[in-house]
Design brief:
The chain is an alpha/beta fold. It contains 15 helices and 15 strands. The chain has a four-stranded parallel β-sheet with strand order 4-3-9-10, sandwiched between helices. Strands 5-6-7-8 form a four-stranded antiparallel β-sheet. The relative contact order is 0.11. The chain binds adenosine monophosphate and zinc ion. The site of adenosine monophosphate has 16 residues, from helix 1 and strand 9.
Length: about 450
């Protein structure tokens, strides 16, 4: 498999440390607000990575952390704590806020058919490991103390900034506006922050340096190396992490262990909305549940994401999602039809299409090509049983649940029959909004309704 490695800014052949096994660490969500579709774009991309590696025969150990300890709103280790801010806004404790949004994140994973990671460690449950790591970095001479915390001295790491091609000179010039005058270099960052003396923080811990809380980056180095080893295979995250978060993770790994913690660093580009990155100011901060309320199937969003390349990102629009939903429904309908046609025959996976598909996904996850191969297969002259077998094989990577055996025909409960009848009526009246709403209601109850020419079929999911 070929992977684009940010470390060398080019694609290279992937070689795991251990034969047949891959360790992956993906920076997880900060659980102080609802994950939006931009966040979930990243996790669908990394789910495809995990599924692809499994498809290619690797055993995959993937870790996605939960950042449940506050990061400061500014990158410069200052500003308000995001979790404490969320807590004040919603009138809940920070612990309740963390739990609430962690649960929301898990629901999002389920909606989008993202496989549960091998491990999902919480930062707050790894404070001891973070302290141990800081002690190592300190013992190796990379730290200094200021009035507000323990800092990493980036001047001690000769390659600091190389990863992100940072222009350190320029950063130094810009440092005249530096807020923290005790910092030796503008790029230095906090490993441990002391609790303020004037306000009581909800989250704080004892440490050898004083009561406080960990800096923004240390949790990822502590948890990735704890679960995957001092050097592991792949580290992923959004491209926004290159300049600061991952640059500092690399510095921490070097400070503690004298080497770069991961061999391959992969970054997803951003979803844009109206040409700008999805953000509070540009809008487009939809959640998967907002889209559901608008009548979209969550897997239609997954379909939309699969149509983009993770390093290109995509422009989101409701129109694009509509087209994705139409294509996804068509595929679902075909799958349904082929199933009925294949009851008496076991299909054979098409070697030709499977090889093409494998080639595409092995080329740095070329999903737009993989989706084109899927449709080429769908339109080919293979017989339906073989198409079904090939689709189910591809679905191990695509993740639409076409291969799940529990999607079998069963006795349909009266309640579902009634909803289906209502929906049929709405369709006859061309009330598409209502028919879509009912389709979702039926789906929420665990049944899928597929429209055929003049009738429809019901299937248990
Ligand atoms: P956060 O919860 O803010 O730490 O973000 C979780 C992940 O989502 C990070 O890896 C971010 O890089 C990624 N992310 C945030 N916004 C977007 C976006 N608009 N498009 C793609 N990825 C994003
Ligand atoms: Zn991280």
């Amino acid at each position: 498999m070929k992977i684009y490695n940010t470390l060398i800014r080019q694609k290279e052949e992937f070689k795991p440390i251990k034969d047949g096994e891959v360790g992956i660490y993906s920076c997880g969500p900060t659980v102080y607000s609802s994950p939006h579709i931009g966040n979930m774009y990243a996790y669908v991309c990394w789910d495809v990575l995990v599924r692809t590696l499994k498809y290619l025969g690797y055993k995959v150990n993937n870790v996605v952390n939960i950042t449940d300890v506050g990061h400061l709103t500014s990158d410069a280790d200052s500003g308000e704590d995001k979790m404490e801010k969320g807590s004040k806004k919603e009138g809940m404790t920070v612990w309740e806020i963390a739990k609430k949004y962690e649960n929301e994140f898990l629901e999002n994973l389920k909606e989008l058919n993202i496989e549960m990671p091998w491990k999902m460690p919480r930062a707050t449950e790894h404070i001891a490991e973070q302290i141990e790591l800081i002690k190592k970095i300190e013992a190796n001479g990379f730290t200094y103390k200021t009035s507000d915390g323990i800092y990493f001295d980036t001047a001690k790491f000769p390659d600091y900034g190389k990863f992100a091609n940072l222009n350190l000179e320029k950063l130094r010039e810009g440092a005249r506006v530096e807020i923290n005058e005790e910092k030796k270099n503008p790029t230095d960052f906090a490993l441990w922050k002391f609790s303020p003396t004037d306000v009581k923080r909800q989250m704080e811990w004892e440490s050898p340096w004083g009561v406080g809380f960990p800096g923004w980056h240390i949790e990822c180095t502590a948890m990735s190396t704890k679960y995957l080893g001092e050097t592991f295979d792949i580290h992923t995250g959004g491209e926004d992490h290159i300049n600061i978060h991952h640059t500092n993770e690399i510095a921490q790994g070097f400070g503690a262990f004298g080497k770069i913690s991961a061999n391959y660093w992969m970054h997803n580009a951003f979803i844009t909305f109206g040409g700008s990155k999805i953000s509070k100011s540009s809008g487009g901060l939809y959640t998967i549940f907002d889209l559901k309320e608008m009548g979209f199937d969550s897997l239609a969003y997954r379909y939309l994401v699969l149509g983009s390349h993770y390093r290109k990102g995509m422009e989101f629009s409701v129109e694009n999602l509509k087209s994705a939903q139409t294509a996804y429904r068509k595929l679902e309908g075909l799958w349904f039809e082929w199933r009925s046609d294949s009851e008496t025959k076991n299909g054979i996976i098409s070697e030709k299409f499977n090889n093409e598909f494998k080639e595409a996904i092995s080329n740095d996850l070329a999903m737009p090509e993989a989706m084109a191969i899927l449709w080429k297969m769908v339109k080919s002259n293979l017989d339906n049983a073989d198409k079904l077998a090939t689709l189910i094989e591809f679905d191990k990577v695509l993740g639409f649940n076409f291969g799940i055996d529990s999607r079998k025909k069963e006795e349909i409960p009266e309640e579902i029959e009634k909803l289906v009848e209502e929906r049929q009526k709405a369709r006859e009246e061309k009330n598409w909004v209502e028919s879509d709403r009912l389709r979702e209601a039926i789906k929420d109850k665990g049944y899928l309704v597929e429209d055929l020419k003049n009738t429809c079929k019901i299937l248990k999911i």
